[in-house]
Each structure stands twice: as structure tokens, then as C-alpha cells.
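Structure ticket #2291
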Amino acid sequence: MTSCHTCELVERRDVGDVPLWDSIYRTPYWDVVHCNSTSLLGWLVLVQRRHIAAIEEMSEAEAIELGKLIRQVSIVLTELTGCIKTYVVQFAEAPGHNHVHFHIIPRMPNQLDEHRGPGIFKQLGVSEAERMSEVAMNELAQKVRRYLERSGSLKCLDGVTLE
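Resolution: structure written out below.
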């Protein structure tokens, strides 16, 4: 297999060598992280912890947990950002990132027409000057983490089932 940058990022999370925004919440199968190359606060990514290149490679348990996590992340983003809904997108096509991951993107009420639907990707891969600050990402990450830890539908890596 060629080098997978996403796998390298998962390994860094495993040893705790990442900022809060890059390790918001971890389950046995998924990592919740904030995208770092976006101008949109709340652009979260659910990263499959083991390397798979396509959705059909997921186990039933991974798929069930994913469904619950998409819902919980969408709920907390709606509460924290005021978005009217979330977009859920999965390609796994970018070089070095052919590893299943899902973008959970807040659709804001005042979003420009050109940034709606697939146009949202104009807010990804932006210049350093346009990117969300690490401080803003960490502040949101802390709130998302607190919510997910209390949500009750997921099992954390420490084995505790939350109610």
C-alpha cells in the first residue's frame, strides 16, 4: 500500500501528538476532528480509525457507530453554530487521503449562494490567511467534545458507555 497521510494522522492521535481540534472525540472506530484548511468554523471530519478505502469495507459495527456519530455531530453543530442543517460528504479521493472519512459541514443561514451545495468546497483548501484560527477551532472543539461525552449514544475509547 502507498503511504496514507490519514493513517499517519490517526497514529499521531493514538500517541496524543495533536492539538485539541485534531482529536476532538475518539470512539473505537472513528475520530472526530476539525478540518484545518477551511474558512468555515465547524467543518468537522469523521475519520475511520483503520485504513479502508471504500464504505463497503466497513463492518456492521463501524457503520452503526458512524450513523449515530453523524447524527450527534450534526445536532451539536446546529446548537453551537446556528447552522440550518449539515452537509455530509465522503469521497476519499485526495492524494494521501484515500482513506474513508466523512466531512460534516455546517450549512449556515447566511451562506453565500455560491457556497451552497457542492460550492461549499470553495471554503476548503483556502490560503493560510483565510483559514480558521487554531484558537477558534480549539474553542469549538472543547464544546463539541463536552457535548459528545454527555450525548449518551456513543462508547468512548476508554470503554465507558455514555448515557
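Closing remark: The chain has three helices and five strands.
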